[in-house]
Write a structure and sequence with these properties.
Largest sheet: 5 strands, antiparallel
Strand content: 25-35%
Number of strands: 5
Oligomer: single chain
Strand order of the largest sheet: 1-2-3-4-5
C-alpha cells in the first residue's frame, strides 16, 4: 500500500506513474507476507490496462491477466482470513479449557 505520496492512491483517482497518467481501477492489497501490493490501472482513454506494483513500476496487461491477478490476490486474502479464523477458534478453545 502506498502511504508516502502526495497522490491519492485510491480506486477512481488519477495518478502519475512515471511519465503516464493512469486511473486506478482496482487495488489489491494482502497483508502479511506473500504477494506484493498491486494496482490495476487504465490509461486516460480507458482502452489499455496496466499493473502497477510499487518499486517495480507499470506493466501493460490484458483483461485476462488483470482478472487472473485479482483472483490470485482474492484467494490469498481468503487463505489468510481462514488461518486467522482457525487461530481465533483454537484460542477460544484454550480459554474455555481454563475458564
Amino acid at each position: 500500500m502506498i502511504r508516502n505520496s502526495k497522490q491519492q492512491w485510491e480506486v477512481g483517482q488519477t495518478v502519475r506513474a512515471g511519465f503516464m497518467s493512469v486511473t486506478i481501477k482496482a487495488k489489491c492489497f494482502t497483508p502479511g507476507d506473500g504477494l506484493p501490493d498491486l494496482y490495476i490501472c487504465a490509461n486516460g482513454a480507458g482502452d489499455k490496462l496496466y499493473a502497477f506494483i510499487p518499486h517495480n513500476g507499470c506493466t501493460r496487461i490484458s483483461v485476462e491477466e488483470a482478472r487472473e491477478a485479482m483472483d490470485v490476490h482474492r484467494r490469498h486474502a481468503e487463505r489468510l482470513a481462514a488461518q486467522a479464523i482457525a487461530k481465533a477458534a483454537s484460542s477460544r478453545e484454550i480459554d474455555a479449557l481454563f475458564a
